[in-house]
Amino acid sequence: MTEEEVYKLLERVRVYYQHLSKSDEIYEEWYRVLKKYNVEEVNKGLDNYLRDEKNRTRIPMPQDLIDGLITEEQKEKLKNDYLIDCNLCHKTMLLSEYDSHYSKCLKVKAVLLLLRKKGQVIEYDELSRYDIKTLERFLNENKIYEKRSFNGNKNVFRGEKQIN
Question: Is the pTM of this model over 0.85?
Answer without folding.
Answer: no
